[in-house]
Amino acid sequence: MLSGLSWLALEVKDVAAARAFYGETLAMDAVADGSLPAALARADDQVAFAAGDTALVLRRPDAVPRGGLHTHYAMSIPSDEYDEWWRALEDAGFALDEHVFGDARSLYCYDDDGNCVELGQTDVDGPGIDGVFEVVLEVADLDAAEAFYAALGFETVDRGADRERVRMHGPMALELWEPHLGLADARGGVHVDLGFETEAPERAANAVEDRITDRESLDAGAGGGERAVRVRDPDGHVLTFHEP
Predict the structure, then answer these.
(1) What confidence score (pLDDT) does residue 219 get?
(2) Which domains does the chain have, with CATH numbers?
(3) Which of 44, 49, 222, 224 is most buried, judged by most C-beta within 10 A?
(4) Model pTM score
């Protein structure tokens, strides 16, 4: 039903500082506002960077949706660049944590706004950061949240032994966490703003119609026809379904 993660939006206090971290320290390429999806909410003060086909949007909280707070998410890097990234971030003074998943290593660090950024070895071309492969959301009721995202086509692939988290696969890996500290003391994000590509925005919204707390059909512009629908899930996360 959902074919791709088109954006992940985070809330930041200082856009200039965020631009320096993501644009200079992580060497991500800026995305011009005019190149962003039409359905993406715009803030007066924001910047966006390309993580593969996903836009990482950083905005000050001057409107709704605000963007996620203390969000843990993971971005892909080529496997053979991992040691170089580790040395560069360590030399820059970042406190790093490492965890190994099978044959793949991931490093964890924090940006200035408390988001836990994971760079994981993945089968991507690069160079540098080349996609968002995981986002973690904090939820109040794990079973209800799992059912909500299952209705959108996400498939459960793993559960925590203590039942405080569920991992689902869809356009990216989606982790649903009841409030707790995870690896590297990461927390699930609150009021995270996510955009998904789909050929049928209305059908996606209808699939969760009985569970959402807000629904808005977005202006299609001069081309006519409904192109996007924005909803809010029971935990306050904002999801926008839009045509490619």
Answers:
(1) 65
(2) 4-242 (3.10.180.10)
(3) 49
(4) 0.95
